[in-house]
Amino acid sequence: MKTQNNFIPRQLSKDEKIPYNLLLLADETIEAIEKYIFNSDLFIVEQGDEVIAIYALYVLNKDEIEIKNIAVSEAYQGQGIGRLLLQGAANKARERGFKTLLIGTPDSAIKQLKIYQKAGFEMFGVKKRFFIENYPEPIFENGVQLEDMVMLRKLLQ
Ligand code: ACO
């Protein structure tokens, strides 16, 4: 797998346009995204004028911070950028003094679970019925209705 060195994330400033097209790859609705996005720090990767990857860091408390959204544009997936974003998020969280980095994903999202585990995250809990109670319509992915969210964490210190 090739990993290119020029995929360096930078923080999006508050007056820049939020790339919802990318965020919508990782979350179902604008309404769901807007529950966390305005209180998150956003980090983007650009190629020329195009934003090709993003992650959103949301502070839970003085020790814990969560990646609420992580997405790589379809044309750039599978090139190691997601792995770089996860490393970047862990480094950023550690620099800021957080002890634990969290991430959640549907229990049926096998590919994402594998990527997070490879990046050093371990499963520690399940938010039962998360996708039923937090979204207005049922969400189906690959014919499976999303119900529970698996929570993973990476210890930083
Ligand atoms: N199946 C299994 N493993 C895979 C797959 C796959 N289809 N694709 C990549 N991997 C492995 C790679 O081999 C790699 O392992 P390595 O580090 O040992 O080489 C690892 O996963 C990371 O691969 P990357 O190429 O870095 O992943 P990518 O750049 O594609 O980013 C991401 C992963 C962010 C999940 C991307 O595919 C994406 O944007 N998907 C759509 C949006 C999404 O599902 N986001 C997560 C939702 S949950 C949330 O946001 C909190």
What does this structure look like?
- With 157 residues, the chain is α+β, with helices and mostly antiparallel strands.
- The protein is 25% helix and 34% strand.
- The protein is built from 5 helices and 9 strands, in the order βααβββαβαβαβββ.
- The longest helix is centred in the middle third of the chain and has 15 residues, at 81-95.
- It is globular, with a radius of gyration of 15 Å.
- The mean pLDDT is 94.
- Acetyl coenzyme *A is lined by residues 1, 25-26, 67, 69-72, 77-83, 103-105, 111-112, 114-115, 118.
Write a concise synopsis of the structure shown.
The chain has 157 residues and is of the alpha+beta class.
Topology at a glance:
Layout: E1 10-11, H1 20-26, H2 30-33, E2 40-47, E3 50-59, E4 64-72, H3 81-95, E5 100-106, H4 110-118, E6 122-127, H5 130-133, E7 140-141, E8 144-145, E9 149-155
Parallel strand pairs: 4-5
Antiparallel strand pairs: 1-2, 2-3, 3-4, 5-9, 6-9, 7-8
The chain binds acetyl coenzyme *A (ACO).
The site of acetyl coenzyme *A has 23 residues, from helix 1, strand 4, helix 3, strand 5 and helix 4.
